[in-house]
Amino acid sequence: MAEVVKKFFIASMFMWVAPLAILYGFNNNLLPGSTNLSPYSMTMFSGILAVISVNIVIAFYIYMAIKEPSNKHEPDPAFVAKAKASVNQFTGRAEGSPAAIKKNK
Q1: Which of 26, 56, 54, 28 lies closest to 42 in space, CA to CA?
Q2: What percentage of the chain has pLDDT greater than the value 90?
Q3: Other C-beta atoms lying within 10 Å of the C-beta of residue 15
Q4: How far is CA 21 from CA 18, 26, 49, in A?
Q5: Which range, of 10-14, 67-71, 82-86, averages the lowest pLDDT?
Q6: What pTM was estimated for this model as a whole?
Q7: What are phi and psi of 33, to 5 degrees?
Q8: What pLDDT is stored for residue 32 in this prediction?
Q9: Which is nearest to 51 in space by CA: 27, 18, 12, 9?
Q10: Phi-psi category of 63—alpha, beta or left, where left has phi over 0 and alpha has psi -120 to 50?
Q11: Where, by residue number, does the polypeptide cross the bilayer (predicted)?
């Protein structure tokens, strides 16, 4: 579980840092070629690259989740037992169903 939280935290941090770094780089002329752009073009280009960077981070996070082995994770036995008990308890008709209402009258 800690590994999943760690991956989520790292991906979340990259989703904040990558676009902010791109915007900062463009606004402070740290990226080559950004000094030749008009302010309008610089704003549009930096915004588009920032959005693309977030999508790349999301795609990478999804790729890591898909490649994670499914046999690595075991369900919590207490949760499974409670879920089975809950399903067994409610296998009959629901109390608010029309058939249950007619039965009670």
Answers
A1: 26
A2: 30
A3: 17
A4: 5, 9, 11
A5: 67-71
A6: 0.62
A7: 90, -10
A8: 80
A9: 18
A10: alpha
A11: 7-26, 46-66
Per-residue pLDDT tens over the stretch 74-95: 778 888 888 888 888 776 555 5
Count of alpha carbons within 13 angstroms of residue 33, beta-carbon side: 3
Give which of 32, 13, 31 is closest to 22, Cα–Cα: 31
Residue labelled with tokens 């941090």? 13
Residue 35 tokens, joined: 């000094």
**Among candidates 27, 73, 30, which has minimal Cα distance to 46?**
27
- Residue 18 corresponds to which amino acid? A
Looking at the chain, the whole-number percentage of residues with pLDDT higher than 70 is 83
